[in-house]
What does this fold into?
Amino acid sequence: MLNLSILIVIIGLIYWLLRLRRRGFFKKPPKVSKVINKISGQEVQVFLDYNTPIEHLAFDGVRFGQQFRYKSLEEIGLPEKCNFRIKPIQYSSDTLFQEELSNETHDHNVFGTISLEEAKLLKKGLLMVKMPDSLLKSSEIISHLFADNAHSKFAEKMEPLINQAIHSNEQNFGGIATKDQPTSADQ
It folds into this structure.
């Protein structure tokens, strides 16, 4: 009788385990897939050179798309005759939140392909030269931009361009200043 009751308990356990198995109790849970959220859009890249107007420099690096402030290129309001390119961009959760280095480049400038950090430094240097009442020399601008020496090779490439921008700026403002001064015939 004891053997019969043990046999009934064993058969009951086997039946119960088979039912649990059919319900998926013993299946391994699926691996949690890595969620990758992507943000995609486009970026305006203005041609960066010594003679790029200051009004155009402000639009370099402006991004637009569904996840950005500006939804379309028309909303940005680029000036006429602005020499620019549109570059597609994509960010993933890894590049945004886990500090992975991105390999984004600025392809539309006098130096060819440079990193976005170098493009920002170039843009900032050109803005410093083109600001009204700017009396800074190229060496002062370069030392201000490259205080950390991280991009010293780029600083060497950029110095002649800053000199050229200063010279061009002096010619433009020098010509305006001489036009504003009264001539001896006007007096």
Helices lie at 2-22, 54-57, 73-76, 93-97, 116-130, 138-145, 152-180. Residues 175-187 have pLDDT under 50 and may be disordered. Residues 38-172 form one domain.
